[in-house]
Type VI secretion system ATPase TssH (Thermus islandicus), 192 residues
Amino acid sequence: LILFDEIKKAHPDVFNLLLQILDDGRLTDSHGRTVDFRNTVIILTSNLGSPLILEGIQKGLPYERIREEVFAILQKHFRPEFLNRLDEVVVFRPLSREQIRQIVEIQLAHLRARLSEKRITLELTEAAKDFLAERGYDPVFGARPLRRVIQRELETPLAQKILAGEVREGDRVTVDAGPTGLVFQTAERLVA
């Protein structure tokens, strides 16, 4: 599996290499060495058409119509010989608020696992989770802003509290949403 993220930013030589790979299923260098790509899945991503997708969904346009309009944008940006070699063009729908909320839960599970190594328990109220999901929601950029919001609003302040000794091994930290941001409350656990 090979992923080319943001393929629209690639140098033109990359497309020449991709044409060779997509045509022959292999790539040969100037020394005659060959790399076989026949059992490889190549995924290319791009944000081309993102505003159009968002606008189309907001207007309630059918998925097929949005897909056709996005493909028209791709045709303006990429050469026909490149597009004709692609097996499939998949147009993803923007993440919903509910999906962002699920991603918050996944990110929190990772953070809790890291904190459990220090025997620190982390609990977030529903309001705190909603706060993170709301701040991290961007239908155009997906979940990328969410990761930064969790780092800025939750992880960094929590790390500062650990370094300052306000949160120690064995503590239980409860996080809630306040009027200006997240509010941290620490309680000592009984250590057996």
Notes: The chain has a mean pLDDT of 90.
